[in-house]
Amino acid sequence: MGRWRRLFSLIVLLTPSYGWLVFAVLAPLGIMFVFSFLSDVPIGERAVFFTLKNYQDFFQNTFYWRLTAKSLLTGLYTTILCILLGYPLALIMAKIIPHRWRTALFMLVIVPFWSNTIVRLYSWAIVLRKGGVLDLFIQWLGFESGSLEILYTYQAVLVGLVHGYLPYMVLTLYIAIDRVENSFLEAAASLGANAWQRFWRILFPLSLPGMISGSILIFIPTIGSFVEPRLLGGRTGTMIGTIIEDQFVQLFKWNFGATLAFLLLVVVLILMALLGLLLRQMRLLRGEGG
């Protein structure tokens, strides 16, 4: 009787969270998967049947292959830039800045979370456009050879993405670096290790979990982003995410949009699986080396 009571209590406690997971995540994925095999949107009296034509159109058209590769590279570039910018900031916050100043720095880091995405991107448009804030500042410095116009370029898309996702990297790295005991670094210094050796042999390996977590949080949403490429990239900002948006919003081809979205999800899952295998091999090698 006690066992059944504990089982019933466990079911009652888990049903809300798992029910929401099924309703908000698994059910939409299942619907998207079914839609990807439909010949048309099942609305009204349209004749709908199951077909593989949507997948054939994707694999036979190199345009979608190039856009998928471009989106993956954009996610990679954004992740690398966030690491390069976020690691020094997280390191300073965790090990250099006094504790009383960390709250102020945290506030500055999470400011992008407080602003609306559209407002933030249009602010960047004002800064990056021809005759904008950045252009006027460069001309004020004395560079009169020509006006600077970054807006509606691939570089502008990267600027918007890095600004939006950098806090994820900073926060995850800060948590990982802050957990590294200062006594480890002090012990290494007492044994003759210089600053670079303490960083490379102790701090960096122990902060890798935070870097990996931040990379996943950045890479996955970035490859499917469409707002930043649309507003800051213009025609050069066409990504697989913007094509998916067009299929659902402009062309009303939900079936092909679902196909593109599901294939992108499959690519992400494959990459995450490969990353998991790589991390497993690294842990095994580290264990053998120890």
Task: Write out key terms for the chains shown.
13 helices, 79% helix, 0% strand, 290 residues, MetI-like fold, mainly alpha
Structure, described:
This protein is mainly α and 290 residues long. It has a single domain, classed as MetI-like fold. The chain has helices spanning 2-35, 53-60, 62-96, 99-109, 111-114, 117-128, 133-140, 154-178, 182-190, 195-223, 227-233, 240-249, 254-289. The mean pLDDT is 86.
- In CATH terms, the superfamily is MetI-like
Overall tally of structural domains: 1
The secondary-structure element order is: HHHHHHHHHHHHH
Mean pLDDT across the residues is 86
Low-confidence stretches: none
- Count of distinct strands: 0
Q: What is the first-to-last residue Cα distance?
A: 49 Å
Q: What is the level 1 CATH name?
A: Mainly Alpha
Radius of gyration: 24 Å
Regarding quaternary structure, what we see is: single chain
Specify the biggest β-sheet.
none
CATH architecture heading: Orthogonal Bundle
> Helical percent range?
over 70%
**What's the CATH topology name?**
MetI-like fold
Fraction in beta strands: under 5%
Structure class: mainly alpha
The helix tally amounts to 13
| C-alpha geometry | globular
